[in-house]
Write a structure and sequence with these properties.
- Keywords: Membrane, Peptide transport, Protein transport, Transmembrane, Transmembrane helix, Transport.
- Its main location: membrane.
- This is OPT oligopeptide transporter.
- It holds the Pfam family OPT.
- Belongs to the oligopeptide OPT transporter family.
- By secondary structure, the protein is an all-alpha fold.
- Helix content is about 55%, strand content about 0%.
- It contains 34 helices and two strands.
- It has helices at about 10-15, 45-50, 65-85, 95-110, 120, 130-140, 145-160, 165-185, 185-190, 200-210, 215-240, 250-255, 260-265, 285, 295-320, 355-365, 370-395, 395-400, 420-425, 430-450, 460-485, 490-500, 505-515, 520-535, 540-570, 570-575, 585-600, 600-605, 615-625, 630-635, 645-650, 655-660, 670-690, 690-720, and strands at about 745-750, 785-790.
- The protein has a two-stranded antiparallel ribbon.
- Helix 7 runs parallel beside helix 25, helix 21 (about 460-485) crosses helix 24 and helix 33 packs antiparallel against helix 34.
């Protein structure tokens, strides 16, 4: 129903308030015959206008199909997710990928006979609730646990190999701690309408399109499969045959790899190459990282503002020798010595895994690249700003959720949300169950931390308890940001800085602190999102809980198993600061770099007055607390409906701060494509073509994600070396053997490099390299024939 209030049709109001001119007979969406334009003025309006509240309580949920496909796809997705962790691209296993595979297999099983014994295998048509439970199980398993990454770092950089049972229980217990938190926070971050989790709208939209009947849904299904097929056959071209299309930069093409400055600022095609100014990608595998079809326009605009500032800040800081990093690589997450080579951490970390002060005198302190140091600073600024931002802008929601300890209330809450109201017919998981899960998991986690190799105590119990309490507070703040914007803020740097004060001179406890400070809050967000998915699709809460538990158990086992295989087969490549186009340890290296720098050298490296000036990195959390205040004060003082007031409220300081330091990782060829697609989808289509937007926008996102994920999986095993054998595409203009992907850097022949590559932790590692000529080491078992000279 149209709003009765007068409209302001000025461009500014349209931009800042995202007005939707929708008067559409919407099919799928809600039970209303007309889309409520007033509801869509708010970002969360899509949750009630695009998603149906339809429910059939008689649909079977716990079936043989659910158990068989759920466990099978959980194993499959956890293996694939682990593989992606060791890839140079920042790829993940999408829930949409799990959804597509589950739908194909589920509908195939529904074609079995229904008589006699077969009725147990096929109780009827494959329904939306079965489908959702399988998706929750498999996507939970696909979410690679932080614990697995920490265990990999201990293996790669400390030669500490945990007992298999200890490792698996460590992974599982830290996930379950987060699940206990999520149960407590349901009334605040699941039940209400404002907690709409934007990235999940496309998933629910697709589920309802596949399972709800009607002529329009038939058209939508056809649309989905056409787009799915098109992207499936397209994506192999930029990913394999024509990699230049993953990062198209006119400036890099013109420069042809001649100048470092051009590569650093405009390069984006290879891992750790550059920050990608004016670089465009045609690969949806990369573009989808920016969620341009599903993130609210406000979230995207704030991220674009942050990246725009990032181009200026990162480049200016590097060339101005901020943090004394001008003689290092422009981008890397590794630690470097005074001579510019990989830091010899084994020389300063004694056999007891503590700092050797005498060795430190001769080796010296490690250094970060300038861009990595700034990125850490921005993460901490963003985290500090998040706490203040939530309090000053969202105090009413906090008071409603936590006033009078309402979040501990048992059973159903008094929440005015149409989806939640439909769920009140189903019994909830009692709060005591979540509390018991939390206590048992915490006990198992403490026990595993005392079971390190040769009796090593990985982290003491008192520290675990402190970090767990801190993690809960962080989950409240970051959970609200994720629920309302779809944006996740990492806390790993902040947690490691805090752990460095708790365990000075001890890198392993600092690294292990991530399991209880970072992993617990991270898993809380995943649990909350899956609970919301169950609410949208009307899966009984107890079945959602069981699906998450099962997915975590299966995922823990296969995460660890696959990690061991990859680490043992690609050890030297994963330890190399750059890696290759096929394998990279950049994610794992971050944990090692932070644990050594913050754990072993916390006092020496972060004290004020030191030449590098790293003291500002931990202090950034406190600076961040004050960053939202100027915008809030101006908003309070400005006329309520003025452009200035709307602008101040529009700025999301945590998002802007984080994106200033977002770029110095992995590949960056996709962000300018995200800018174009984001405005087309969330502004032009939403305001100018609202009927198409409501019917197809989120379905388009699902189809593109699903098709690109499927072909990437096939390519990973067929040609990218996940199976052990890489099959390079023949060299041609679009896949140069002498230049990097986007022509911003020169490749040199492997025969001109010292071979075999020495151990990066040994003193000999410094011999074949110079401060200004950093080369990528090559695993002799890898089929790559050239390396990137940066």
């Amino acid at each position: 129903m149209a709003s009765d209030k007068p409209k302001d049709n000025s461009p500014d109001v349209e931009f800042f308030n995202e007005k939707e001119k929708i008067a559409d007979v919407s099919s799928v969406a809600s039970s209303q015959s007309l889309v409520d334009e007033a509801a869509l003025e708010r970002p969360e309006g899509v949750a009630t206008q695009v998603i149906s509240t339809q429910d059939d309580p008689e649909l079977p949920v716990f079936t043989f199909r659910v158990v068989f496909l759920g466990i099978g796809l959980s194993a499959f997705s956890s293996v694939l997710g682990t593989i992606y962790t060791f890839k140079p691209q920042n790829a993940t296993v999408s829930q949409l990928f799990c959804l597509i595979i589950a739908y194909v297999l589920g509908t195939a099983m529904a074609a079995l006979p229904q008589q006699g014994f077969w009725r147990y295998l096929n109780p009827g048509p494959f329904n939306i609730k079965e489908h959702t439970v399988i998706v929750i199980m498999s996507s939970t398993a696909a979410s690679v646990a932080v614990a697995m990454e920490i265990i990999a770092a201990l293996d790669l950089f400390y030669d500490l190999r945990l007992n298999s049972a200890v490792a698996i229980f460590s992974i599982f217990s830290t996930q379950m701690i987060g699940y206990g938190f999520a149960g407590i926070l349901r009334t605040f971050l699941v039940y209400p309408t404002y907690a709409f989790y934007p990235t999940y709208i496309s998933i629910v939209n697709l589920l309802q399109s596949l399972h709800f009947g009607g002529t329009l849904n038939a058209k939508r299904r056809k649309f989905f499969w056409i787009v799915f097929t098109a992207i499936f056959f397209w994506e192999w071209i930029p990913q394999y045959a024509f990699p230049l299309l993953t990062a198209i930069s006119i400036i890099c093409l013109a420069d042809n790899g001649r100048h470092d400055f051009v590569r650093n600022l405009f390069g984006a095609g290879s891992s750790n190459e550059g920050i990608g100014l004016f670089s465009f990608s045609t690969s949806w595998t990369l573009i989808t990282q920016g969620n341009p079809l599903v993130w609210p326009l406000r979230t995207q605009v704030n991220s674009f503002i942050g990246m725009g500032l990032g181009y200026i800040v990162l480049t200016t800081a590097y060339y101005s020798n901020v943090f004394n990093g001008r003689d290092l690589k422009f981008m890397s997450t590794s630690l470097f010595g005074l001579d510019g080579n990989t830091y010899n951490q084994s020389a300063v970390i004694g056999p007891d895994f503590k700092l050797d002060q005498d060795a430190l005198e001769s080796v010296g302190l490690p250094r970060y690249t300038t861009t990595y140091a700034i990125s850490q600073l921005c993460y901490n600024l963003s985290l500090g700003a998040s706490f203040t931002y939530i309090v000053i802008w969202h105090w009413p929601e906090l008071r409603a959720a936590f006033g009078g300890m309402r979040f501990l209330k048992r059973g159903h809450a008094d929440i005015d949300d149409p989806h939640y109201k439909e769920m009140q017919k189903y019994p909830e998981v009692p709060q005591w169950a979540y509390g018991l899960l939390f206590l048992v998991s915490l006990g198992v986690g403490i026990g595993c931390s005392y079971a390190g190799p040769n009796g090593t105590v990985l982290i003491p119990a008192w520290s675990i308890i402190f970090l767990t309490v801190l993690s809960f507070l962080i989950a409240v703040v970051l959970g609200f940001i994720t629920a309302t914007t779809g944006f996740n803020i990492s806390v790993k740097y902040a947690i490691q800085i805090i752990a460095a004060f708790l365990h000075p001179g001890q890198p392993i406890p600092v690294m292990y602190a991530n399991l209880f400070g970072n992993s617990a809050s991270f898993q809380t967000l995943y649990m909350l999102q899956d609970l919301k998915l169950g609410q949208y699709t009307k899966v009984p809460p107890r079945m959602t809980f069981a699906a998450q538990m099962a997915g975590s158990i299966v995922g823990s086992i296969f995460n660890f198993t696959m990690m061991k295989i990859i680490v043992s087969n690609n050890r030297e490549v994963l330890r190399d600061p750059i890696g290759t186009r096929v394998w990279s340890g950049w994610i794992i290296q971050q944990y090692n770099s932070a644990s050594v720098a913050m754990g072993a050298f916390g006092k020496e490296l972060y004290s004020m007055g030191k030449p590098a000036g790293y003291w500002i990195i931990p202090f950034g959390m406190f600076i961040g607390l004050f960053m939202p205040l100027p915008f809030w004060i101006v908003w309070k003082l400005a006329p309520p409906k003025s452009l200035l007031a709307r602008t101040m409220k529009y700025i999301n300081v945590p998002v802007v701060a984080l994106y200033i330091g977002w770029l110095p990782y992995s590949v960056n060829g996709q962000w300018w494509s995200c800018v174009v697609i984001g405005f087309i989808s969330q502004w032009w289509l939403r305001t100018r073509r609202p009927r198409w937007f409501v019917k197809y926008n989120y379905l388009l996102s699902a189809a593109l994600d699903g098709g690109s994920q499927v072909i990437l999986f096939i390519l990973s095993f067929a040609v990218f070396g996940a199976s052990g054998n890489e099959v390079p595409f023949p060299s041609w203009w679009g896949n140069s053997a002498t230049l990097s992907v986007d022509r911003s850097a020169t490749r040199i022949n492997i025969s001109s490099v010292f071979w075999p590559p020495p151990d990066s932790c040994s003193p000999q590692a410094q011999e074949p390299f110079t401060v200004r000529s950093h080369t990528r080491g090559i695993d002799p078992n890898n089929h790559l024939t050239d390396i990137l000279q940066v």
